[in-house]
Amino acid sequence: MLLFRIRADVTHKFELDRLFDPSSIAVVGASTKAGKIGYEAMENVHDFGGRVYPVNPSAEGAAFGEPFVASVTDIDDDVDLALLCVPAPVVPEVIEECGAAGVGAAVIYSGGFAEAGDDGAEIQRRLTETANEHGIALLGPNTSGFVIPRTGLYGSFATGVESFPAGDLAIVAQSGGVAHSIAFQATRERRGLSAMVGLGNRANVGFEEVIEYLDGDPDTGAIVLHVEGTDDARSLLETCYDAETPVFAYKVGEADVGDFAESHTGALTGDHALYQAGFAQYGVPTVDSTSQLLDAGHVAATAPLPDGTNVGVVTAQAGPGIIIADRLKQAGVSLPPLEDETTATVNEILPGITYSANPVDTGRPMPEFGEVVRAVAADENVDAVLVYELHEAALGFPTEDLDGLAESVGKPVVFATAGPESLLEPDREELESVGVPVFESPERAADTVAALAEYARVNAEAAPAEVVDNA
Amino acid sequence: MLLFRIRADVTHKFELDRLFDPSSIAVVGASTKAGKIGYEAMENVHDFGGRVYPVNPSAEGAAFGEPFVASVTDIDDDVDLALLCVPAPVVPEVIEECGAAGVGAAVIYSGGFAEAGDDGAEIQRRLTETANEHGIALLGPNTSGFVIPRTGLYGSFATGVESFPAGDLAIVAQSGGVAHSIAFQATRERRGLSAMVGLGNRANVGFEEVIEYLDGDPDTGAIVLHVEGTDDARSLLETCYDAETPVFAYKVGEADVGDFAESHTGALTGDHALYQAGFAQYGVPTVDSTSQLLDAGHVAATAPLPDGTNVGVVTAQAGPGIIIADRLKQAGVSLPPLEDETTATVNEILPGITYSANPVDTGRPMPEFGEVVRAVAADENVDAVLVYELHEAALGFPTEDLDGLAESVGKPVVFATAGPESLLEPDREELESVGVPVFESPERAADTVAALAEYARVNAEAAPAEVVDNA
């Protein structure tokens, strides 16, 4: 059983600009006590660049220099975004007040809604109805929020989110905790983010609305999704299909974790195989972990996408090269024979080369290594290039040879290496700055290239005519 | 078809002390020119703590302050170890000289032997015969060497190997490049190593000899193997089985990479499924990547091993908890119901807890989080504990509650988290110092615990009586 493909005429329910690009923010339940959500949220947004209003009827004085007000209705300003740091039972009333005050969007951090049984579901139904009446976009409830690094908008109550580097990848996760886990991994690995969004219970802002918004965001080069389950899979798939931005997905719940998952964001995980097939049919490759999602998304956002599934591998060490070839083949990627011309060129550059088929194994790093990579990248049998080279301090990386190569051949050129951080770091940064993403394990590089190849496959097979429209 | 299990009466072919713990080293082909292997090897060993002799008939003066000699036979000292930085055709003659000089062991870095066709195989046959006559242990040929971080012995020509932290895990890889890749990953992730050994072509020192040696090394708490293929799989398996030290293996070559692999260390990759089954039958769990190998080996080397395959999961964020539960179940690990007593204790610690089954989901980090982990660790239904908690700066980790917990319950307690490096680092180091390994992705923590559970399974099922002897 496969899902049908029907192009949806999806319309924006809300103007998400007021959520993701607000001019003013109210923090409802703001607190001056460190560790409380109302404090952490206030700390994260207090200098975001617009007006911030701490709201708390039982507080006096000021928070982060801003005087407390008793209610959003007391604010003499158009508040775009309200961050709700109050417990579930109070939320419907606060949303009423937000409606009265003309607030455009709200993030609801607290739990105790649809994920917590019938009573919570009833509260969520009520507040969603109110929000819909007033046209308030709701992120959550039951989410740790969102972050837009480029503008310094930290709509999350987690600590340390100001460390997220700005960049091209948007993370959209059903779970706020997973969104933060991926974003912190990205930070550790110097991968820039255009947005991090944790959806939570998706009261009226779901995958569709956020994907559409990010598809229109010039700073977003790729979108990655963490999906537990949704009631309307087709709507999600159609939105992905309509997006011009490449989308990759990580569908959790292959094993039976339904009970626990339903207790989370109130959604069943559904049939895992059906989701995988559905995503593929709608042009979305799926991956198997948060790090694979990050890796594939980062490269898709910053490098050319491959036109097909043929990969050329160049390695300076046979052992990691074998791991890479093995891993790519297991993932269904092909390592085609190189053109005769390429083999001749490689043998001319390096007479007596260890192995000049695909993978090309140079036996050791050497000054001509970059030339060999260029020759393989130019090969018409090859849609993407994966290079492995153990870092040698005396030699560095072939940065000059690879500068602009990916753009000029229109194929991703991905590098994997190993070495001590202190010696490796400057060379790695240089190589990344000329358009070559670098990984520090052979498997992560191989999985990334396999995901890119899968992107080419599912988009070629899916619906050529329509895909061409979108490309 | 499964391999038979027969306990082997394996005897040491060589005293590997002269290889891994030498008092004096000759560097044959030593050079004063940076970038040459003879320079890099010399640089890496010149201050290892014993005498170092640069050997080069065509060089004059000194290298790193040591005067050149023309041949190992000119050295007026018992040389334990010779590092051969000379091309393949010269190696047999140098080995002859090593034999005449009473050298105990040699590392042969160069390629061009069995992996390079019939002529190379003939050279390798000749030099092995000579080495065997003189009782010289040969590491390689075609390897980048070995490192013993604790003693500062860097028998590798790679740069930066002095950064490897000393610790409890021994890496034994068929490929020197893979050995270095894993060791540099370990370095980046602060996992200590007792040894890193790249075997290469295994002229007369193979997996068996190195595993036996490391099994007798009091500094080695676990051994991890990277295996491409070997002519005598049973001998390898029996050696693993006889070792008292836990062994984990990564068998490469699930896809057909035979051609390329044979060109590497002269070994066929063989039947992948047969290897996996063989390893399991002999008490060795297999994993699927270099990082999984490192992770499982690190925890096995530093924490108690589980007695069974039942895992208790505690999470402060549902989303990552679902990922962990999903991943564990996919790997065949069970998440059993907790004892009534445990559930009661958890509900007493945290009334109104989000989800008190297994996984236990506390909904958010809180001061009582460590108490909840202690309760689950004490549960008799549980053989290992996996904890997820997003780092919150105001709260830190429950280090005091977890101090010594793993040892006292005799179960591994593994932690996964996410957070910004600057805030996370001191708390992570504290937590690791009290016996709790920390991972920064939910999947890596889950894969590690799954590998530990697999260790319990294959050792329980394999041959109980004999396994008990070894435990």
Automatic annotation (TrEMBL), chains A, B:
GO terms for molecular function: acetate-CoA ligase (ADP-forming) activity. Keywords: Ligase. Residues 19-113 form the CoA-binding domain. Its EC number is 6.2.1.13. It catalyses: acetate + ATP + CoA = acetyl-CoA + ADP + phosphate. PANTHER family: COA BINDING DOMAIN CONTAINING PROTEIN, PEPTIDYL-LYSINE N-ACETYLTRANSFERASE PATZ. This is acetate--CoA ligase (ADP-forming).
